[in-house]
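User: Okay, second chain of the day. Same drill as before: sequence in, structure tokens out.
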Amino acid sequence: MIKLLIADNHPITRKGLEVLFSASPNIKIVGSLDDGQAILEFVKKNPVDIILTEADFPKLNGLTLLRYLKNDFPDIKTIIFSGQPEEVYAINAIKAGAAGYINKSVNVITINEAILKVAEGGIYLSNDLTQQLAFGSRVNKGGTFYKKLSTREAEVLKLLTIGRKNKEISKELDINEKTVSTYKARLMRKLKVTNLVDLVNQAKLSQQL
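Assistant: Same drill. Structure tokens below.
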């Protein structure tokens, strides 16, 4: 029996997943949480095989969470379940330690298939993205840009686009403020902008292309 922990900041989504797996013969939900920090506390005290989690938490964003889990709980596999475009965030999520990425627009059969594949040691991405990676074809412009970022650069950019200040980013990523400034400068060069407002706007635009 696969011990599944689900985490999402929307109660309806969590309830829907609970109902979905309530009759499953091979998947058992062992917890239902609403923020990233709670995931770390839960796995310290309870056995978990797979975590199915949203990426956008107010207290601890998904890429940072993945880094903690990869370092401290390497046997636990994590699947990101997000409304963000797969071509933009999936690659960085896998680089950060995720075993799969599912868009929230998929059907229930796909969610089940992803969990079973990851439980067997596989990596789950959509067929479209898998083919694009296999044939080396370019995804959209936003995805191409994001693939050039390091995992830490993607973390910093993600936090900047949701309004985090340098001090808050420094605390969440456990790096000093000077390092955050260095990442911001690097991101500005890559996006060819000269200020924070344009950096955030360009990042959001890249996600929509």
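Strands lie at 2-7, 27-33, 50-53, 77-82, 100-103.

User: Thanks, on to the next one.
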